[in-house]
TrEMBL record:
It is an enzyme of class 3 (hydrolase). InterPro entries: Cyclic_Pdiesterase, Phosphoesterase_HXTX, RNA_CPDase. Its EC number is 3.1.4.58. Signal peptide: none annotated. It catalyses: a 3'-end 2',3'-cyclophospho-ribonucleotide-RNA + H2O = a 3'-end 2'-phospho-ribonucleotide-RNA + H(+). GO terms for molecular function: 2',3'-cyclic-nucleotide 3'-phosphodiesterase activity; RNA 2',3'-cyclic 3'-phosphodiesterase activity. The active site is at residues 41, 128. It comes from Dissulfurirhabdus thermomarina. This is RNA 2',3'-cyclic phosphodiesterase. The keyword Cell inner membrane does not apply. Hydrolyzes RNA 2',3'-cyclic phosphodiester to an RNA 2'-phosphomonoester. Keywords: Hydrolase.
Length: 186
């Protein structure tokens, strides 16, 4: 089985701004497992374990979903948590910009993958960039206050492609390997 997901990568300027925000939150304390800056991405679809024989269908579906779509602009805006502030599990950075284009791309990916035999996501799409996972509430107040004080906002960037990744989980966390790259040709 190949642990697979489809994502939008961030340009260096946005990645650098997120790394600075993450460092600021890290200094606030808290029991959080932080995502390395190199691994931060905007997930469009997490497929989980895909049999190796099913990978061509994933790649074909991703290519079909991207075909004919124009590039669009997004930005990174604000910080938040899932599921809520009283019981946080995931710390994230928000996404702004052309959300309708992002939602349409996500819907096309879901549709193409469903047609290829992969189950559709039942939860609504909530675009975000995962920065960390809360392990316990120890020190949470400091992190929460640092998040509230943050004014994270990056300049816009252009989304020009979707990348399919394999995710390998090891003792040092996840390592990602690109499986395919799908341009938004316009």
């Amino acid at each position: 089985m190949v642990r697979t997901f489809l994502a939008i990568d961030l340009p260096p300027a946005q990645r650098k701004a997120l790394e600075a925000a993450r460092r600021s939150l890290e200094r606030a304390g808290g029991d959080v497992r932080w995502v390395p800056a190199a691994n931060v991405h905007l997930t469009l679809k997490f497929l989980g374990g895909v049999p190796a024989g099913g990978l061509p269908r994933v790649l074909e579906a991703a290519a079909a979903a991207c075909r004919g779509r124009a590039p669009f602009r997004l930005s990174v805006e604000g910080l938040g948590v899932f599921p809520g502030w009283h019981r946080p599990r995931v710390l994230w950075a928000g996404v702004g910009g052309d959300i309708p284009a992002l939602a349409a791309l996500h819907a096309a990916i879901e549709s193409e993958l469903a047609a290829a035999g992969f189950p559709a996501e039942e939860r609504p799409f909530r675009p975000h960039l995962t920065l960390g996972r809360v392990r316990s509430l120890r020190g949470w107040a400091g992190v929460r206050d640092a998040m509230a004080a943050s004014r994270l906002a990056t300049g816009p960037f252009t989304v020009e492609r979707v990348v399919a990744y394999e995710s390998r989980i090891g003792p040092r966390g996840a390592a990602y390997r690109p499986l395919g790259d799908f341009p938004l040709p316009g």
